[in-house]
Write a structure and sequence with these properties.
With 489 residues, this protein is mostly helical. The chain has four domains: 143 residues, Methane Monooxygenase Hydroxylase, Chain G, domain 1, CATH 1.20.58; 113 residues; 183 residues, no CATH class; 29 residues, no CATH class. It is 67% helix and 2% strand. It is elongated.
Length: 489
């Protein structure tokens, strides 16, 4: 490191003075009016004195920016991190963040009316970004600096900075700062997932601020934080603290992150999910799906609709967050139950112990309740309810592969009739047929009791079909074959 850089950081008085000038300049309303782009023409009416004042302010502003960038680059070295902590430079950096953060949004609204406001906003954004990057470097690999920052700003100031979403690079740097603080500290991890859940909530929400960005630094660092939460066994507490009863946006994002983590590790099947987390997820699926299906039963009994499927397309009865959560969970379970060899998936036993097969049976029971009312409609084949049933059958097919405990439990719960009833053509959603056939195959493999139970099931008649009703036809069984006949008027 050159002598000039060492001198720059050692000259603490000059450093503090420049930082203070940068902060004070943001508080002066005239700064916004008098900040100019280098090379712009000063009007005669402003006069020589005003011109000199503007140049002096611009020079000071540039010095502050250069200093921030210098500090940011030096902060990757531990020796400089120690000096910066001794000189309390973190306090100056946080003052810059605080002074600029609230004003950038207001200035952006003046873009069309005032070019100088746009320039000032851009410069302020660059300043905040450099400051956030400096803070991130300041705590990287330095436990003492992490403690200092965590005790100083968590969780309210950091939450405020993230909530403003100044730009994605700044948000990414702040999320990286949080990750550095929790990566090797059980205490800070516990705080983030419990008392500091507001910070985690804001971090998760930042991943959806700009839907045009599929992935960026902010997303990546939040992903790393969620992975660390998962592998350290803090997922359940984090999920609970992000919402009480109704499923929140942050909980959905959290689950999507977990599903992405699981999908990434599916090749070697080293899924970072422990038994308590797995049991919690199964219970959550059961809770949300039963709530949705119970609402559909209530709706049907009131005569508001003749299709259990339709409730999954009616946000008045089922929230979009509940629907997203159901299908993310089903995708996750479908992934971890797939076997890459001729052996049972290592998570099949775990999911079985957590009651996933009973959850499938609960759904069957709800459908039978509707059927007894004589108002089951098949018209909404593309509905989310039908996809829900298909994915459950998918999971059952995976679970029952070379697993006698699952095979026997399916027989005890009388799941065979609903699987057989699902083995029919459906152009709009064919996967229910294929997964049902595979489930029956796996359930009967090397299991004589299941083979006998299925052989004793009697054909009772064709299932109701709204499509045939619309065509004025009905299905009948004649000599073991299906026959279509016109409906008598």
């Amino acid at each position: 490191m050159s002598a000039e850089l060492i001198a720059a950081i050692s000259n603490v008085a000059n450093t503090k003075e420049l930082l203070a000038q940068s902060v004070e300049s943001t508080k002066d309303p005239s700064t916004r009016e008098n900040s100019i782009i280098c090379g712009a023409t000063i009007t005669e009416s402003q006069g020589t004195t005003e011109s000199l004042r503007n140049k002096r302010r611009t020079h000071t502003s540039n010095e502050g920016m250069y200093l921030l960038r210098l500090l940011r680059n030096l902060a990757i070295e531990k020796a400089f991190q120690e000096k910066m902590r001794d000189y309390n430079l973190l306090k100056g950096a946080l003052r810059i963040m605080e002074a600029l953060n609230d004003r950038i949004s207001d200035l952006r609204r003046d873009y069309e009316e005032e070019d100088r406001a746009m320039w000032w906003s851009q410069q302020a954004t660059l300043t905040v970004r450099a400051t956030a990057q400096y803070i991130c470097n300041f705590v990287t690999g330095n436990f003492n600096n992490q403690e200092l920052l965590w005790n100083t700003v968590v969780s309210e100031p950091l939450s405020t900075y993230l909530r403003c979403g100044i730009d994605r690079m700044t948000v990414g740097a702040l999320c990286a700062t949080v990750y550095n603080c929790i990566a090797n500290s059980e205490e800070r991890m516990t705080h983030l997932t419990r008392e500091g859940h507001e910070l985690l909530d804001v971090m998760l929400r930042t991943t959806a601020i700009d839907k045009r960005v599929a992935t960026d630094e902010a997303f990546d660092w939040v992903y790393f934080c969620v992975n660390k939460i998962l592998v350290t066994g803090n997922f359940v507490e984090a999920y609970k603290h992000l919402g009480d009863s109704d499923t929140t946006d942050s909980q959905v994002v959290l689950m999507k992150m977990v599903e992405a983590i699981v999908h990434k590790t599916k090749e070697d099947q080293t899924y970072p999910i422990d038994h308590p987390t797995c049991r919690f997820l199964v219970e959550k699926l059961n809770e949300i799906s039963r709530k949705s299906l119970t609402e559909s039963i209530t709706k049907e009994e009131k005569g508001e609709d003749d299709s259990v499927d339709s409730v999954f397309n009616d946000e008045e009865f089922v929230s979009s967050n509940d629907l997203e959560m159901i299908f993310v969970l089903l995708q996750l379970f479908g992934t971890i139950t797939v076997s890459n060899n001729d052996q049972t998936s290592p998570f099949s036993e775990l999911l079985f112990d957590c009651g996933i097969v009973d959850t499938i049976s609960d759904y069957k029971a709800e459908r039978e309740h509707i059927a007894k009312g004589g108002k089951v409609s098949d018209s909404n084949r593309g509905g989310l309810s039908f996809g829900f049933k298909r994915d459950l059958v998918n999971i059952l097919a995976n679970l029952s592969f070379k697993n006698k405990k699952v095979q026997d439990r399916a027989r005890e719960l009388d799941l065979f009739p609903v699987l057989l009833a699902s083995c029919r053509l459906d152009d709009k959603n064919p996967y229910i047929k294929e997964w049902s056939i595979l489930s029956l195959r796996n359930l009967m493999e090397d299991n004589l009791q299941n083979q006998e139970a299925i052989s004793q099931i009697k054909l009772q008649g064709p299932a109701p079909s709204a499509e045939l009703d619309e065509l004025g036809l009905k299905a009948e069984i004649e000599n073991g074959k299906i026959k279509l006949t016109p409906v008598e008027m």
